[in-house]
Amino acid sequence: MPLRLIATDLDGTLLDSTSTVTRRTRAALDQARARGIHVVPVTARQPIGLRAIASGAGFDGWALCSNGAYATNLTDGRLLFAEELPPETIRTLADALRASVPGLLFASVREGGETFVAQHGYAEIADLADHKRDPRTMGGVGLDQVLGAPSLKLVIRHPEIAPTALFEALCDLGLTGFEATLSGAPFVEVMAEGVTKATGLARLCEHLEIERRDVIAFGDALNDVEMLRWAGHGVAMADASDVVQDAADETTSSNDDDGVARVIERLLG
């Protein structure tokens, strides 16, 4: 296939289990960039989480954050687009879910991913790895403040209930007007209606004048499924669930076995 853009998830995909870009993976990415191929991180992370690994991966161009909700340029800070959840949708969703699942905690990602507004009690059950933010910096506000403004991504979690169960409970409500998914993090992630990694990638490719057939995408989690289906060639990681592997055109080795690098090396010859 002609290859013009590599779209890759980060956690569980490009990064190994220590959240590092290995030497072999970095070399493969550099080889692709040397041939004029765009290398784009497509992640649930915000820029703060991307910056932590950007130098190790050589990321210095466009990036898709919040599961495709917005595109930002890591060098000059340009914002190509941002799709936000309206407050009315957020409140309707939260009220309905709280009625069926007591004890939920919410957080809102705003302002290009730079602002994180967490409900009182959220920081107490959060780890640095969850949002690549020190929980001590999260503060805590009333639920009305969390739900009362547009959000690039709404985060829903519970101290005891697994994200998969929360996701099922949310789906069972039968509500519309938003997109919900799981990234492997300990919470459910909610974006504006119609927003997925695939829609974000499609918009970026239109901006770059790249056809989907010239795109290869890598992923390992539920939030990668649409992107793997959309790309000209979708690649799932070895330990991805069946639904993810079924969405892909092939399965590579694990993130701890340089699975992304192996495919890139093969395609570049």
From TrEMBL:
InterPro entries according to UniProt: Cof, HAD-like_sf, HAD-SF_hydro_IIB, HAD_sf
Taxonomic superkingdom: Bacteria
Transmembrane segment boundaries: none
Gene3D superfamilies with a match to the protein in the record: 3.30.1240.10, HAD superfamily/HAD-like
Stated name of the protein: Cof subfamily protein (Haloacid dehalogenase superfamily)
Species annotation: Microbacterium phyllosphaerae
